[in-house]
Structures are given as C-alpha cells and as structure tokens.
Amino acid sequence: MALPLGAIQLAVVSFIASTLSITALGLRLWSRHILRQSLHFNDYMAIVAMVFTAGAVSVFLAAGFAAGLGVHLQDIMRTDPGLFALHLRLFVPAQLLWAAANTSVKFSILSLYTTIFPERRFQLICYGTMAISLAYLVSVIVEAFALCKPVQYSWDKSIQGGTCTGENLAYLVAGITNLVIDAFIVSLPMPKLFGLQMSLSKKVGVAGMFSLGALICVLSLLRVLWLWNWDLTDMTYTVTPGAIYSVLEPTLGVVNACLPVIRPSLQRIFGKGTLNWTKKDPDGSDASQTFGSCQRHTLTGGKDAKHGDFVRLADDISLSNIRAAPNHPRNLAERDAIRVNREWTVDHSLPGGRSDRI
Hints:
The chain contains 12 helices and 6 strands. It has a single domain (5-269), classed as Up-down Bundle (Rhopdopsin 7-helix transmembrane proteins). Helix content is 59%, strand content 4%. The chain crosses the membrane at residues 6-27, 47-70, 124-148, 168-188, 209-230.
C-alpha cells in the first residue's frame, strides 16, 4: 500500500528539521573545540535533547511508515486492525520522548542564560524555571499512564472493560503549559539584551539570535489549537498535524539552543565577519561580547551586576577582587601573599598651558 500524504509530509519535515538540528549541534561542539573549551552543562543538555529528539522523530516516522499515520481509522479497522494496535503502542513513547526532548532544550537554554548573565536574581529565576520544566515533564509521564484504567488500555484497546477519562483535556492542558513556559523562556533575557551598550541594530541582531524560540512558541500555539480540535475517534488520520508540530518543536528547539554559541565555527567556515557582534559602534564602544565564548566572558547590562566592590563590565580581561597585604606580614604564611602598592597622580591643567602635578 502506498504511503498516505500525511506520512509523506511527516517524513519530509522530519528529514529537513533533523538535519538542521544535527548540524547545529555539530557546529556547537566544533565551536567549543575551536575555543579549546570543555563541555559545560548547557552543552550536555543540548546533546541529551538531540538524543531524545532523534528518538521521538524515529517513533513518529515508524508510525508514518508502519502504523497507519495519515490513514482514516475506519479504513484501518476494515483492512488491518493490527496497524491501529501498533499505532497506539507507538503513541505512548512518542509522547514521553517529545516531552523529554523539549525539557532538555529548556534546560540547555536556561543554563546558558545563567552563564551569560551572572546576576543572582536572574539566575534564581532561571533555576526556578528549570524546576517548573522538570515538574511539567513529570506531569506528562504521569498523564501517559494515569488516564486509562487499566494502564495497559492506553495502548491496548482490546482489553474488555477498559476506560480512558479526560484525554483531550489533559493533552490540552499539557500543551498550554508547554506554551507558557516556552514564551517565558524566550522573553526572559530580552530586558538584559536591550540593556547592553550597543546600537539598536546590533541589539535587534543579538536578540534575534535568542529569538528563534519565538518560532517555537508559534509551533506550540499551533499544537494547542490542534489539540483543541483533535478528533480521537479518527486519531490515526487527525494526528498528522500534531505529529508534524511535535517533530518541529524539539528539532528547532535544539537549533535555538545552539544558535547563540556557534559563531566561532561559522566564522571558521564563512570568514571573520560572520555574526560579528563585537565590532565597534559609531560611538566607539564595544557592541557586545562573543556569545560563543560566554564561559570566558560576562555580559551584564546595568548597575545590578555588582560583584564585590566593582561593577563587572563586558571586558576581555576578567576582573577579580584583590586584597592588599599589610606592609609587614604578621606571619610567615603572609609573606607569599600578593602586595599591591597604590599611587595616585593627578594632573591639574591651568589656564595659560601651565599644569600642576601632585
């Protein structure tokens, strides 16, 4: 039997989106190698997200090629009821892998935020959002096994006396929750980014790197609208749009997580001018730091970013608190301490070209 149109559409979208996500992750890891940096938590979470995404895409493709996705349920039940049974068995792992992939993407992005923006309050918000995302994943896992009694009825509708309650509502609430979390994560760094000392055009460009997540939010919204109208009585046919959205969300999510840190690899391929946000603005000030090396640099945009006795700026040289040792060490251990002798020279320019030096 020829593949239905829905299965073909799903296959095309899966191939393109998976290629983009794998390429983005490869560029991310290459950028770390170029900068001679070890992998950080946000990198590992991007890798984990790609693994879960590959699993989810594989399950959806299996449903398209071998489990009747895109075919009307009544046609399946008339010709080969076994396809519907296989479709249901694939639905549960697809749901879980999709949720795990999206949660891993959220963790990667939020962890990157905490690296770029070191303000304590901002970091606490990011950690709190991670906790909410983890709770969401747990809720999806519970949802997958708690809606039907007995549990096996979720994937085996041949069980006599089995029932499922509130499936549409549960899926809809989960979709709305995912949308709200995505929208919050996308908007979270925008005040910080637009607070950077750079021209408006550069601010828009840098924000654009972080805003592919807006497209993810659109996909999440489309998925919520689909869930609102999903006809479970013909689920093998009506699931096609949802399957496509569920493939695009995590795959483009991986791209979104990797985009801010792949500049070094893109410059290696296309030249030094690629995504160069560190050029001087017309007023002579630095536009921003390189996001690909955010583990070595710090971006802050205001007076809240205080560390110790100074305000940390976006400099190439990391600043540190230095404690001056007494002129005469009290014990032998202090003899190895660093001493700092400070002198001040003040020039007073006077009329007539004369100057006094103190």
